[in-house]
Amino acid sequence: MTAAEFIVSCLEAEDVEYVFGIPGEENIKLIRAVHASKKIRFILARHEQGASFMADIYGRLTGKAGVCTATLGPGAINLLLGTADAQTDSSPLVAISAQVGMDRIYKESHQIVDLVAMFKPVTKWADTISTTQAIPEMVRKAFHFAQTERPGASYLAIPQDIEGSIMPAGLKPLAIPKQAKSRPEKSSIQEAAKLLRAAKCPVLLVGHGVVRGEHSAVLRQFAERHQIPVATSFMAKGAISDKSPLSMGVIGFMRHDYENFAFDEADLILSVGYELQEFAPSRVNPEGDKKIIHVNTFDTDVDAHYNVSLNVVSDIGYALQDLSAELGEQTLSGLRDSIKIRALLEEELDKGRQDGSFPPTPQRLVTAIRDAMGEKDIVLADTGAIKMWMARLYPTYEPLTCLISNGLSTMSFALPGALGAALAKPERKVLAVMGDGSFLMNSQEIETAVREKIDLKVFVWVDGSYGLIKWKMDIEEGAHDSVDFGNPDFVKYAESLGAKGYQISQAKDLLPSLQTALAEPGVSIIACPVDYSQNMKLVKKLGELTISL
Question: pTM of this prediction?
């Protein structure tokens, strides 16, 4: 057995179902070994960046590390963006690339780049396999680091001569150990309950760790039992259903949004599963004066605006169960913080749903998407103005059904990510929602979906501009420049790649076209112009808004 074949047997032992990537001269043997596997399907991407985003989102939805692979040098460098996105969004991913042979790895030579040094800042662990004897341990270590809390990315470089080496006899893949969950210390739970009882206006801030760890059910039970209003980060949308009267929506918009008023009034923040990179804590605790109870599987970084009063480091589910038991039937702050905030969100959505103007407003587009999708269907909201509108307004009822890149906030993850989502959750409809700027960055993966017979649906909001940057320029500079561009005929472009294309030319066609595209098999691209004049109108409204809670 060659080292390449043995590595594939290790991937099989890790229950890998898909490897996303592109072959090159130096990883031919690994690609051939994956192709020969009866357990793993190789998905040939059109760009290594697309492969990395496929693995990124597959990992986020399954909890199992998505695997992407490339050749050395430029191929490996192209894997970097999705790898960094997975790391900053705490999604499990293992990136594997070729490297030059050991006979020239130490000197200047053709296509050599210090890949380990490049990947180390954006992974939990990165290394080069320099001997065949180390392969079982190094593959297991890569998956262990990627998948255990706090999850993220790992990277392995395989020198070309190692890849083709014959394995020593007697080596086999290592078994996956079971992970025990830790319970919180009783004294920590008692102190947390004491702080909550003393608080006059506590607010519950929910982060990605809740949905990632499958703690949404116990979180909802806790909130309902103790009647505490809940706001989530962008990445934790759906941790509490937006149908709940306790849900206040999301924290994360670039201006003082409706939910911020609850944090203005709060004297204590119960932070559960929140990670600092999700949203700057200075936006919810600008004076650094609020008490904070931090509940997560790991300690938090130091931040002047997130100076915690109490750390409860344990399994999140156990912590919430134990804290609820300690509080008994005590109600913490009732519904007063959420009623007016929910009313403002619902008013904005209702106005959007009833608006028949064309081009449609962002609010109208959000409501059309919601009306076309089932409660468990998956939307990927790409980075840009779309992200702000979808994160703020898209009603979300189940965890991991509205996916956003928020640690790195990278553009163009949604289209290739939707391929990973469709493979991870084939029983659900999946829709990538993108601006025209991000769409064309990775649109070549449409051909991947067509060729691999993967259902892919993409809804493009068309404004011929990098809309979020235009928005920011208008806010900060009072004008904009260097943000506008031209576009192809989206229908013809989709058809040229073997997909179906829909161009929305009147408001009444919006919802029926979405429903048709989502119901049909295969790959469908829907393009619709958007009226982004609403961007500055929203900023003006929020700037003038006052809420008495």
Answer: 0.95
